[in-house]
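chain and backbone:
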Amino acid sequence: MKFNFDELKNSLADIKPVDWIIVVGIAIALIVGIITFTHFRGTADKQIEAQTTIGFQVFLRGVTLTGTESPINPGDKTFITIRNVPYTDLKVLDAKIDTKKTVLQNPRGGKDMFVLVDDASQAFLYDMIVTLVDENAKITKDGAVVGGNKIKIGLPVTLEGPSYKLNGTVSDVRILQPQVQQQQQTYGQNAPSNQTQQPKPDVNKQEQNMG
């Protein structure tokens, strides 16, 4: 088929200036988009220095419990939501729970002028510290990244399981070794073995406090 240059020239002449502007605008947008996306991917890849296992602790303040069992225990899986964006199930390495406390003057005197005791005015309220492990964290110059979010102290997160949905904040972040045993050593007493019996809410004691 013979190419007819005159027909092409006449067709281009029929195109209005407004149409040319639209075509040129689309072409520029495509070029800018491709360049931006390529640069973004390259920059993101350079920022990631390693992928490793991290442990981070979540502080849950003022959890209301009227049962006799802690809702979160070592070895459990808990679903984590970061900044209202669902992420994934993470393993619970450790979970500590304690009643609300208050400071009173020591009635026995001695060098300890004050003692820390259960707060009878806040029955059924507990504070919890939950240690979680993520084996797919990305390490950047700005810190650890989990689920597209930088895990830093103060970050609001939500933990959810079969019987609970609790809001807390990240209170500690550490890079851990791959082996679970080494992870436990990293957190020291905050990561006891699974054979250690976990503290339970003392509901009877709280009921006595309520009178």
